Amino acid sequence: MLKIISISLLAFISFLIADFSDLGPYEVETLSGIIEPINGGSTQYSIFQPIDPPDAPHLIIAHEFVSSHDYLANLSQHFASWGIRVATMNLLHSSLSDNSAIQDAEDLVWLSDELFGGGPVIYAGYSAGGLRSIIASAQDSDVVAFLGLDLVDFNLLSQQYAQNIDAPVYGLAGESSTCNSEANGLGAYSQANNAKLIRVTEADHCDFQSPTSFLCGLLCDRENIEFNSDEIQALIRTLSTAFLTWRANLNPEGVSWWLSGYENYENLLNSNSISELVVSLEILEEKVLTDKFYIYQNFPNPFNPSTQIKFEILDPSIITITIYDLSGKTIKNLINVVKRPGSYNIAWDATNNNNIKVSSGVYIYELKVGNKKKNKKMILLQ
Asked: Over the stretch 209-230, which tens digit does the pLDDT of each residue have?
């Protein structure tokens, strides 16, 4: 297995295109206060607000068991500097005397509605906060993605909810340790429809906190041989920020750190910086094309009366999406426009070019970018 010898992992990351480990271009203001979530009691919250933020999904992030959102403050500040509005709060049902992941998840969904008025949201969680955010993602119809940071779930509750999440379920994991035994939380990613879990080599449970608590350092710290803690934490910031900015449609280059076929991702694999633990069939079906575009399976599928088709491009391009029947006959010309780099959704209402409803059956949708094409099948049930 190839290893980086001549330069450190941190220098290696800096050499690549976008150094997500550094603070982003936005100044950030922090607002704190006291709120009373729906499941009783009062608690402290914080909002990390980019100055003049772009229009993008916000992030709700949950802390570990028997802890505080203070230990996610640096990480939240970092994400906000890349243009993402972030909110955290002290969980009310995450202690030895009151442990209810479901109630905390309901409070997280409430927090999204209360502070940001709902709308597109990404949920993230560290340790047992990952379990709570998994449940929140399954309960919130506005969710666009989930990010787990060394997810812990001793009761395997996350598996039950992960299969009901209609959004990408991605995560980072550390090595086996006292604070997170081997494969703990692994089942959540295995059950999700669109999932990927990456292990960061030599990362321990504390490397996913920022700042790190004394207790975590005492119980969970492990000896490193190949990479030091600064390098590992820089890589965790890079991967998590790349995922969030990619899924928030803020920086399409973020995909290059997560999918096979991209130079950044392949370099991390070849340098033994990461390893793959879970890759869902949906991701395996995706092929990264030389002109950097790809298309997702439509959702819902089967569908009635309409469905959403999502695609992503990394270069400005003329985009054509066409619907065909199985005989190859053109049914609907959906779009033929120039698009800037980003992620897009377009709806098909099961009508043809004459706006007449078509019959039940299997249809093919094709994305054409320049002279490259990719297609998938979908099922209409009337």
From this structure: 888 776 666 667 667 778 888 9
Report the Cα 50 to chain-centroid distance in Å: 20
What token pair was written down for 81? Answer: 């500097």
* Tens-place pLDDT, residues 60-80: 999 999 899 999 999 999 999
Two structure tokens written together for 193: 């429809």
Lowest mean pLDDT among 129-138, 150-159, 174-183, 371-380: 174-183
What does the alpha-carbon distance between residue 332 and residue 339 come to, in Å, rounded to a whole number? 19
Burial classification of residue 75, based on how many CB atoms lie within 10 Å of its CB (0-12 exposed, 13-18 middle, 19 or more buried): buried
Q: Compute the Cα dihedral for 24, 27, 33, 38 and give only its sign.
A: negative
Query: CA 364 to CA 309: how far, in whole Å?
Result: 12
Is CATH 2.60.40.4070 the classification given to domain 293-380? Answer: yes
Say if residues 169 and 162 touch (Cβ distance below 8 Å): yes
Superfamily of structural domain 9-285:
Alpha/Beta hydrolase fold, catalytic domain (3.40.50.1820)
Nearest 5°: the CA angle 208, 214, 215 is 85
Give me the residue spans of the domains in the chain.
Answer: 9-285, 293-380
The contacts of residue 1 (CB under 8 Å, 6+ apart) are 272
